[in-house]
Amino acid sequence: MITLYDCATAPNPRRARIFLAEKGVVHETVQIDLRSGEQMSEAFRAINPHCTVPTLRVDATLVLTDNAAIAAYLEAQYPQPPLLGNSPNDKAEIASLNWRMEFDGLMPVAEALRNGSPAMADRALPGPVNYAQIPELAQRGLARAQRFFETLDAHLADRSFVAAEQFSVADITAVVAVDFARVIKLKPDERYPHLLRWRAAMGERPSCKL
Amino acid sequence: MITLYDCATAPNPRRARIFLAEKGVVHETVQIDLRSGEQMSEAFRAINPHCTVPTLRVDATLVLTDNAAIAAYLEAQYPQPPLLGNSPNDKAEIASLNWRMEFDGLMPVAEALRNGSPAMADRALPGPVNYAQIPELAQRGLARAQRFFETLDAHLADRSFVAAEQFSVADITAVVAVDFARVIKLKPDERYPHLLRWRAAMGERPSCKL
Q1: Residues B93-122: pLDDT tens digits?
Q2: Which of A43, A164, B8, B108 could tie B141 with a disulfide, CB 3.0–4.6 Å?
Q3: Minimal Cα–Cα distance from B141 to chain A, Å?
Q4: How far is B207 from chain A (nearest CA, A)?
Q5: CATH topology of domain B88-205
């Protein structure tokens, strides 16, 4: 049985949860308790030495240790429905927007949270190495996250999906980034009407309720 | 004619240059002078509003504005030789390692350079918005870049390529990251014998001389 090592409260494993749901891939889920540091345990390190979730154990010989691997594998192994695009042009647009949702959305929110929260002292970056918080990076992350909302709202003004006029991994990453921004007290409101409309439409998908 | 908007001295356009060369895609090149800020000009903004290189103009209707788009498009349009992998397992491993080479290699070097160099004041991030330098981020970038060399050396101890026992985009990103680290005075030396061996082998490829 395929096993997803997950954490219900964390943004990155949610990307894998939604991807798996959209593909209809049957799997079991194991929760890893990030708050107690279970990802750093010897038991979990033996599964994923990067000490991060999501981790997808496909079988005894194949363990996927990040969302990049999980998306590439699932798209190739379960082509329907396509989430990375079909034509060269669609693949390019989806890859580009997914990358931007990660760099311009998820990362700034994570920077603001991890460099500002007392609960995350020395955990400014995920993974096995501790890094001290940088307060200026928390501030920059917040500023960039606000700009991300503005940019995404403008981008969605004449679009129903983030990329290539179809639901894709770029929508998944964007939904997760927008929802994750709650942790730094950012929520889409009436200043962002296109973002609100798109998020409401995404909310109709069962996968996005996960 | 396909046109690559390039900058001979910058790491990210080099990734596209190598990718195009490995695929044998005939194209013309236009140099954008990042030192004088040509990427911010109205003329270039009209081509790529993100104000970054590489930018690949395929035709009047298709302009690819980042490496994610360029790699996805070229792989789909020019499948041979594959640079993103063929089997689901290889695609996963290559996507994962490419992502790690970008996040753990290119990004820390860029953080160290952009947050430390007097010539890059207020240019702590690429793109149309100015962000102030954060000296602590320059220090963290240097520490992470050193760790990247160590990690990559250990990874290559029993490998000839970064991922999936074949030349791939993960090698391209790694070569560019390792070479780029010169700007923060990091070079592979005898402390990193596996990294040195791999880099020497990559240097035999005409594409990696670009």
Answers
A1: 999 999 999 999 999 999 999 999 999 999
A2: B108
A3: 11
A4: 22
A5: Glutathione S-transferase Yfyf (Class Pi); Chain A, domain 2 (1.20.1050)
